[in-house]
Amino acid sequence: MPIYFYSTQGDYGSFSNFSPHGFELGGRYWKTSEHYFQAQKFAGTKHEEDVCHAFTPKRAAEIGRDRQRPLRRDWEQVKDDVMRRAVLAKFSTHADIREVLLSTGDEEIVENAASDYYWGCGKDGSGKNMLGKILMEVRAQLREKSQS
């Protein structure tokens, strides 16, 4: 049976990029995986700093989605790998949420985001669910690591 998540509430709230689980990556501390992901849209610019220092993940997302800011040229090519790095760093850093992720066994994980057909499943379930897929990839990596 698929595991659906969306908000930071509930048993699987830690799967949300807005969950308050910070980590170090790329030589700096990120408050949430949303902060890291959105900042990478502007890597090496003052806009990256603006996102990094955003008070909440919601604000980080707003800044990251502001198309008045210059998106890096290769964003569409690198965004999945950026998300993979963020999710792996987050779950590698925090043992408690790593256990939650590993406890899902081989169940499908789905971001139940009605308005997002790329990262989520979309309103009608036809979305790509890339965040769910990345969570399942990271789960497999962490499982392999814990068995070695």
Describe the structure.
It is a single chain. The chain is 45% helix and 8% strand. It is mainly alpha-helical. The strands form 2 sheets. Strands 1-4 form a two-stranded parallel ribbon. It is globular. The model has no long low-confidence stretch (mean pLDDT 97).
* Count of helical stretches: 6
Derived from helix and strand composition plus strand pairing, the structural class reads mainly alpha
Q: What is the annotated CATH architecture?
A: Orthogonal Bundle
The CATH class is Mainly Alpha
Spatial strand order of the main sheet: 1-4
- Could you estimate the helical fraction of the residues in percent? 40-55%
Instruction: Please indicate the percent range of residues in DSSP E strands (runs of 2 or more).
Output: 5-15%
Number of domains: 1
Indicate the radius of gyration in whole angstroms: 15 Å
Low-confidence runs of at least 5 consecutive residues = none
Overall shape: it is globular
Question: How many strand elements?
Answer: 4
CATH superfamily: YbiA-like
**Major sheet description:** 2 strands, parallel
Averaged pLDDT, please? Answer: 97
Order of helices and strands: EEEHHHHHEH
Examine the coordinates and then state which fold CATH places here, giving the name of the CATH topology: Tetracycline Repressor, domain 2
Distance separating the two termini: 28 Å
